[in-house]
Amino acid sequence: MARERVIVVGAGGIADAWFPAIKKQDLQVAAVVDLKKEAALARIDKYQLSGTVAYDDPQKAFREVQADFVLDLTIPDAHCDITCSAPRGRVSCDRGKTNGFDP
Predict the structure, then answer these.
(1) Which domain holds residue 74?
(2) Neighbouring C-alpha atoms within 13 Å toward the C-beta of 23
(3) Rounded average pLDDT over 12-32
(4) Crossing angle of helices 37-46/15-24, nearest 10°?
(5) Cβ-count burial 81-93 (b if 16+ within 10 Å, e if not)
(6) Which of 32, 57, 94, 102 measures 20 to 30 Å from 71, CA to CA?
């Protein structure tokens, strides 16, 4: 069975909480996207993601990379832009703290 392919959008601090789980689930990270491409490259290097492409433009990544789902690790204010523009299919989103709400 083929591994599920994921595009991870957001390579900031929260990404360090997610990448170990991604690797444990044996998902194939097809692309890592961050406004700072060097942050995406750093995550690819840190987690030894062979064959993963770094982008600084989520729309370009969505056009160029085939994936089964998108994992949105962006800041809460960017969630709608990412989830609403992601290709049809599954989008998972780290909700984080929003508008001062902390359960």
Answers:
(1) 10-93
(2) 14
(3) 93
(4) 40
(5) ebeeebbeeebeb
(6) 102
